[in-house]
Amino acid sequence: ALSQVHLQRGAYVIMVDKDQIKLQKEKERLEKDFFGQITTIYCDLTKPDEVKQLAQQAVNEVESIDWLYN
Fold first, then answer.
1. Is residue 27 within 8 Å of 42, Cβ to Cβ?
2. Which residues partner with 40 through β-bridges?
3. What's the rounded Cα separation, in Å, for the pair 49 and 13?
4. Cα 44 to the center of its chain, rounded Å
5. Which residues contact 58 (CB under 8 A, 6 or more apart)?
6. Phi/psi of residue 16, nearest 5 degrees
7. DSSP classification of residue 14
8. CB contact set of 50 (below 8 Å; sequence gap of 6+)
9. At 59, which helix (H) or strand (E)?
């Protein structure tokens, strides 16, 4: 729901999940209904090394992060 709100406002949304199939399906669903840029990143938040990679990849995608939620 929060991704939808931000996409309606034209935000660049980075979605993260450990389930790649679920992540891709949600991206496709949102792209049908909303005009906005969506990037998906696979990450298991219980693994510190993956979280570090997530942070680096997110910083490489955007200049700053305005909202971060789980």
1. no
2. 15
3. 22
4. 13
5. 14, 41, 65
6. -130, 140
7. E
8. 43, 44
9. helix 48-61
pLDDT in tens, 13-57: 999 999 999 999 999 999 999 888 899 999 999 999 999 999 999
Both tokens of 39, joined, read 């990037």
Residue written as tokens 């969506």?
A: 38
State how far the Cα of 27 lies from the Cα of 19, in Å rounded to an integer: 12
pLDDT at 70: 74
Would you give the distance in Å from CA 7 to the centre of its chain? 11
Helical residues (DSSP H) of 1-43, grouped into ranges: 2-8, 20-33
Determine if the pTM surpasses 0.85. Answer: no
